[in-house]
Each structure stands twice: as C-alpha cells, then as structure tokens.
Amino acid sequence: MRNKEHIRHNMKAVRASGSKIERMLGKALWNANVRYRKQYSKLPGKPDFVLPKYKVAIFCDSHFWHGYNWEQKKHDHKSNLQFWHNKIERNIERDKEANDTLAAMGWNVIRFWEHEIRQDIEKCVERVKQAVS
Fold first, then answer.
1. pTM of this prediction?
2. Position 119 pLDDT exceeds 80
C-alpha cells in the first residue's frame, strides 16, 4: 500500500501546466512575437498553446508521460509494469484522439517532443511561424 500512496503523491506533484519545456517554448514564441493562449481548455486535449486566429494548437509532450519511443522504452519500467503500461498507452491513445478531433474541427495540430524543444527551440518556433503564414 505504501508504494501506491507514494506513486499517487508523486503524480500530484506533477503540475498540469507550466512545465519547463512549456515555459521554454512559451518564452521563445513570445520573443518571436507569436501571441498565444495557454492551457486552452475549450479544445479537446487542452493544448499547451493555442493561436485561435490561425486555428493552431500546440502541444509540448514529455518523453515519459507521452511515450516517446514507447516500443523500446516500455521495457525500462522495473515495477508496477501493468499500471505504467496502461497509463502511458492510454496517454498515447488520448493524444491521437485529440489530434484526430482537432484536425476534424479544422485545427492544425503541432506536437513537439521534449528533446525537440530542448535541442532546437528556434526550429520549433520557425515551425509555428510557418503554420501561421
């Protein structure tokens, strides 16, 4: 039981908004004069950034929670395998559902992996700017 309480406590510590990669991208977009709305709950998937005028929804996906390279990485979990596999696989499904729903609504969905934001923020900003031009 202690282990489950510990997991729940750690998951509560994960903030719903304002992760480091979100702050990095938000600052870079703002400095490039790209104005946005944050944590837009009116859209499926609650995009991290939205440019309503251009119908662009932007997501910043962390490797762990969104299953980057999942087929190889899923074997890295050492405990509570079923729990983590179900959790992350459901996150992957939810991301795809949000992408499909937003696309059907006429929105352009841009998803950045954590490493993309950390390694080449300028390229990420350029991709957003191309989507609005």
1. 0.82
2. yes
Instruction: Please give the DSSP secondary-structure letter assigned to residue 117.
Output: H
Which residue type does 74 have? K
Q: Look at the block and give the residue holding tokens 């202690």.
A: 2
In order of their start, the domains of the chain are 17-131 (3.40.960.10)
C-beta atoms surrounding 68 within 10 Å: 16
Six token digits for residue 30: 């703002």
Rg (CA), the chain: 16
Cα distances (angstroms) measured from residue 40 to each of 29, 48, 50, 66, 120: 16, 7, 7, 19, 25
pLDDT, averaged across the chain: 87
Contact partners, residue 37, CB within 8 Å, separation at least 6: 49, 50, 51, 52
Contact by Cβ (8 Å): 3, 80: yes
Q: Is 111 exposed, middle or buried (0-12, 13-18, 19+ CB in 10 A)?
A: middle
Q: Which two tokens stand for residue 12?
A: 């509560």
